[in-house]
Amino acid sequence: MFSSLRVPLALAFFCTIALTLALAEMVLLGGVRQTYLDNAQASLERDCGFVANLMRRHMDQTLLSPAARKMITDEMAQLSVNMSGSMCIVNWRGDILEDSAHRKGQNVSQRPEVDAALHGTSGLRLGDLETDPTMYVAVPMLAQKKIAGAIYASRSLSDLQLTLMQLRTRFYELALVVLLGGMGLSLLLARWLTRPLRRLTAAVKRFGEGHLDERIDIRSRDETAILTRAFNSMADNLEAQQQTLMRFVSDASHELKTPLASLRSLIEALEAGAPREQFLGLIHRDLDRMERLVANLLDLHRLEQSALKFHLEPLDLKPFLQELAEEHGALLVEPCCLTVETDADRLHQVVTNLLVNARRAAPEGTVRIGVGEGQLWVEDDGVGIAAEDLPHLFDRFYRVDSARSRHQGGTGLGLAISKGLVEGMGGTLRAHSAGPGQGARFTLEFNSRSGPRPAATREP
């Protein structure tokens, strides 16, 4: 129905103002009316009580004399003038004895307020403000501690009608001004509240068009700020992922281009009559390198998609490490009898990669492997790692020495895969080096689920 959120917001604000004004009118005019009626009732009861006391004093002493009757009648007439109404004395049968409005002889006992007074309690009745704007009050009249009749009074409520009408007119005039102002204020407030959403919508649109650097400044602490912060975080993540993807594609293309170019040159040499046996070996070398690269790329993809399955089983590390140390010519340190919950094949892949890398870094040096304090570590005394290289060591295709790694057949994916495999098994893989020429140490830490625990039997 509405093309913009501002319209329903402004309408909601406007309706709130209108409902508030309607409630204010009901409370204000109702309060004025009730206050007026309470004061009018108190005034009528006070005047009637005054006349009733006069009658009681005279009737308690003796019969009401003509002089006392005239004095009381004059007092009733004066009170009637003051309150713009009428007052009368009613006997115990409900007949009007004296009346300022000259209604003598009329019986009013059937009126509820008079009936209540003749039974000992004050009575009140309000006429309809439209057809009979009058208040009627009757109070008991006592003589010698017995109910002898009632004092019955009435007063016009026309002044209340006029007051309420004037107040309602002034209130409607003020309400009209408030509603007009509220309408404008509602539109401005709705525009101000939806401004962050418009900015966010524009940013999302630009982001969808490919502007991945689009961000929104956070200027508040409300729900829109939370939404904006979430968008910025999403944009940062997507931009980082795109950069990683582009870098990955570029690196993979570069890595594949090298053996492909080598294969092309070797094939061209064979076509030109070069020795077949020598060049076929080189072709097999490059094909093996491409096969390893593709296999590593598939492993990385499975790790990222959580599609690689791990079969965790108890593994005794002592024979496991002894076999690997002998295979790669490494020195086994602290060959403790420890068992861990791990995937033996994947752990073999990780440790083998670490040992191969260590041997490349120290071809003539010593490579050591050991277990201690919940850690499996591999270290060498080779070329070491510079401090600026350590944060990027587990990135894809990152090489500390690109020329040496390519010459030795490395793809630059081994450490990235090893880190993913270790984390997939619930552990962590870290690298430490004091600097170039100081060797390096790679530490595999097991978590509480896959961490080292004593074997079933220990050697004495």
Describe the protein.
- Helices cover 56% and strands 16% of the residues.
- It has 10 helices and 13 strands.
- It folds into 3 domains: 6-163, Beta-Lactamase, CATH 3.30.450.20; 223-304, Helix Hairpins (Orthogonal Bundle); 313-454, Heat Shock Protein 90 (2-Layer Sandwich).
- The strands form 3 sheets. Strands 2-1-5-4-3 form a 5-stranded antiparallel β-sheet, with helices on both faces.
- The two termini are 84 Å apart.
- With 460 residues, it is an alpha+beta fold.
- A hairpin with a 7-residue loop joins strand 11 and strand 12 (440-445).
CATH topology of the largest domain: Beta-Lactamase
How many angstroms does the end-to-end distance come to? 84 Å
Helix count from the secondary structure assignment: 10
Question: Strand arrangement, largest sheet?
Answer: 2-1-5-4-3
Taken together, the total number of domains comes to 3
Please identify, by name, the CATH architecture of the largest domain. Answer: 2-Layer Sandwich
Q: What does the main sheet amount to?
A: 5 strands, antiparallel
For the CA atoms, what is the radius of gyration?
Answer: 51 Å
Identify the overall geometry.
Answer: rod-shaped
Strand content: 15-25%
CATH class membership of the largest domain: Alpha Beta
Low-confidence stretches: 402-407, 448-460
